[in-house]
Amino acid sequence: MKRTLTTLALVGAAAALAACGPKTETKTAEPPAAPMASAPAMTAAPAPASDNMAGMPMAAGTKMAKGTGTVTAVDTKAGTVTIEHGPIPEANWPAMTMGFKAAPALAQSVKAGDKVAFDLKLENGGGELTAINKQ
Description:
alpha+beta, CATH 2.40.50.320, 2 helices, 5 strands
């Protein structure tokens, strides 16, 4: 019985590894399909002119928050804005100073000393700026 269980475990492990291993496929060269005369040409839509994500739908578990404070530092290379902010009830945060991830356009729109109102997407114990406005 022990030998049977061990054999089944090894076979199961081998099957699992085989399923996870690299897949190799051979493809045969196919001639390119002729374009359909009646189908309109498809083109990619241009990217939006701004990085403002305020209108973007969020995942069901994503929480949003708003805050106000004073920018204490901006690191455009790291993509962060540090803000000394008041309490943020949606995140259950007291007043503190912390850095937030920010898109390049948002980080470049403010400088240390600016009083701001901001919107956050809360995730993994931190937040990402989705909007920031000087007051």
